[in-house]
Amino acid sequence: MSAPTPFTARVRRAVRDGHLHEAIGRATGQLEARRGAAFASLEQAELVRDRARHARLHALGRLDAMLETFERRLTENGVRVHWARDADEACRIVARLARERGLRRAVKAKSMLSEEIRLNPALEAAGVQVVETDLGEYVVQLADDRPSHIILPILHLTKEDVGRVMERRLAVPFTPRPAELCRVARERLRGDFLAADLGISGANFGVAETGTICLVSNEGNIRMGTTLPRVHVALLGIEKLVPTLADLDAMLKVLARSATGQKITVYTSLIHGPRRTPDEIAPEEVHVVLLDHGRAATLAGEEAEILACIRCGACLNACPVFRAIGGHAYGTVYPGPLGSVLTPALRGLPEWRELPEASSLCGACREVCPVRIDLPRMLLGLRARGVARHGAPLRLRLAMRAFALLATRPRWLRLARRIGGALARRFARDGWLRRAPGLLAGWTAHRDLPAPARRSFDDWWEERRRGRA
Amino acid sequence: MGAREPDAVDGAARAGILGRVRAALRTARLPDEPEPPPTESSLERASPQEWRARFVAELRAIGVTVHEEGSAGAVRTRVGALLAGRSVLAWPARALPYELGAALASHPPLDGSAGRAGQAACEIGLTGVDAAIAETGTLALVSSRDHPRTASLLPPVHVAVVASGQIVPTLARGFERLGPAIPRASAVNLITGPSRTADIELELTLGVHGPRELVVVVGP
C-alpha cells in the first residue's frame, strides 16, 4: 500500500482542490455537530466513555487469554476459526474456502480490514466475483476509486459525481437525486444478494465471553450478506475483542454516537454461527479469520494504545489536517490521526514517517476519541523516533546547529538579532513581513510574519537593570 | 457445520500469533487504569409504564409509525388493516403473539419456508419481537426457524408487534433478559428504525437494502 506520489505532492494537490475542500468541510462540520448532540443525550456520558476505554484496554492487556476464550466460544457456537499471520495468509484462507466449496459470487460488507489486506483482488484472481454492498463502497467499486473516509467512503464525491458514475457503469439515466441513486443501487444489489453464495464482512467487535461477532450497519446490507449466502466469512483483527456483552453495551453506546451521531445504528447483528436447524434461514457455515498482520508487534511497542481504536472516524472529522487535505492524500487505508499512528505502527516507520508529521498536535482527536486514546502523545513519539533513527532533514540539522552556535554565545546572538531585526523591519510593510527568504519562506508562503519590535527584550531588560542600579 | 480439523498451516499460524501476543504482553506498556464504577440509567429505576412511553417516543423520533392498542382484539384488527390486500412474509402463526395467525387466515402469508425470490417479492413483513429496548426504540429479534430473519429484512415495509411486557428499559437489561438465548441463536438482530444511508452528501435516504418503512404495533 505504498503511495505512488510523495506525500507533500499529494497534500499540495488536495489543498488546491476547492471542490474537495468544500465537501469535506461541510460533512465533517455536520458530523461534529451531530456527535456533540448525541453525547449530550447520553446519561453519564463521560463515565460510559471511561467504561468503553476500560473494556478495550482490559481485553488488550490479556489478549492471549481473551483470544483463546473467544476461539473456544466460537467453536462451541459452531463457527470455524482460522488464524492468519499476515495479509497473504488471510487472503489465501478466504480464497481456499471459496475454492473448496465452489463459491463464485461474493457480496461484501464495508470492511477496512479487507482493504488493508487487499482481499478483493486476491479473490478475483481466485475466480470469485466480489460485489461491494455498502452504498458508498459500491460507488467506489463502480468508479474504480478509493474510499476517503472510514465511515463515509465517498465523502469526496458530490451527488452529481455519483450520478455520472452510475450512468456510465450501470447504463441508467443520469440523476443527481440521492433517493433515486439509492433506488438504483437497491435494485442492482438485490439481485446480487439473492444470487450470492458467499458473504464477506469485517467485524466491529468480538465478544469473548459469548463468542459473538458484532456487526453494525444502517443500510441493512450486512444483514443481507450474513443471512442469504450459504457461507459467511468474518474477518477480525486480533485486537477487536471486548470481554463481555455488558462491555459491548458500552461500546455500542459510544460507537454510533461518535460515527454518525445516532444513539445506535439501525442494525446491530450479533452473530453466533450457522443455522441451528436445516430449515432456518441463515448461512450453513460461518467462518472467522483472526488476523495479526502487525498487531502483535504493535502491542509490544509504544503505540499499543492505538489498538483500542474502534474505527468510529470521530478523530478524522475533528482533525484540522484531515479537514484540509481529505482522506486520499494520506495514501493509507486508515486516514486521519488514527491512521497516522496506526499505519507506521503496523507497517513500519521508515516508509510512513511523514504521516505523524502531518499533525498540528492540537489535541482535538484525543478530545473526541470515545475511548480517549492519547493520539498526540503517540504522534509526537513517532516523530521523535523517526528523527532518532533516521535523522532530521539536512537543512533542519544545519539550521539547528547554527542556532545552537549562536544561542550559546550571547554577544553573537545579540548582534545577529540586531542585524536580523533591522533587515526584517526594512522589508516589512505595516509591521508584517509577507515574503521572507531562505528557510523562513516556508512560513511566509502560508501566513505573514510579524516584524520584530524595535527594542528587543534583552535591550529592555538591560536598560531596566541599569535604571535600577 | 464444517467440522473438519484445522489444517497444519492454520495450526502454525495460531501458535505463532498467540506466541507473539504473549511475548508482546510481557513488555507491553498499556495504560493501566482502575475499573470505573458501573453506569446506571435513570430509566432503569422508572416504571414499566414509563418504559413504554419512552419506547414509543424514541420510535416516533426516528420516523417509525407506532400504533398503541389496548387489547388483543384491537391488535388483530390493526394488523389486519395494515396487511389488507398486500402480499405478506410473516413469522409462522405459532410464533406470533395475540393469535395473529388466526386473524391472518383469510389471506395466508408466506413464511420462511418459501423460496427466496418469492419472499423477496412480498410487499410487507410481519414479525413479533423477543425484546424491545425503551432507551433507543430498538427491537431485538432472535433468529430461528420460527423467527425467519427475512421477514424483517426483505419486504419494503416491516410491521412488528410488541407486547408491553417485552419492553425493557435498556440494552443492558435486554441482554440480561435474553441471557443464554443470545449465543444459542445463530444471530440476534437489533433493529432501530427503517434502513437508511447518508453516504451521498450526507443526505438522509430511507430503504437502502432493508425496509424503508417500519411500523410497530404495541399491544397490552
Number of strands of chain B: 11
CATH homolog superfamily of the largest domain in chain A:
NagB/RpiA/CoA transferase-like
What is the CATH architecture assignment of the largest domain in chain A? 3-Layer(aba) Sandwich
Strand line-up across the major sheet of chain B: 1-11-6-3-2
* H-E string of chain B: HHEHEHHEEEEEHHEEEE
At the third CATH level, what is the topology name of the largest domain in chain A?
Rossmann fold
Instruction: Indicate the CATH architecture of chain B.
Output: 3-Layer(aba) Sandwich
Which chains have the largest interface?
A-B, 111 and 80 residues
Specify the structural class of chain A: alpha/beta
What is the CA–CA distance across the termini of chain A?
67 Å
Continuous helix count of chain B: 7
Radius of gyration of chain B, CA atoms, in whole angstroms: 22 Å
Q: Give the helix proportion of chain B (percent range).
A: 25-40%
Instruction: Tell me the total number of β-strands of chain A.
Output: 12
Q: Beta-strand percentage of chain B?
A: 15-25%
CATH class of chain B: Alpha Beta
> What would the CATH topology of chain B be?
Rossmann fold
Main sheet properties of chain B: 5 strands, parallel
Distance between the termini of chain B: 41 Å
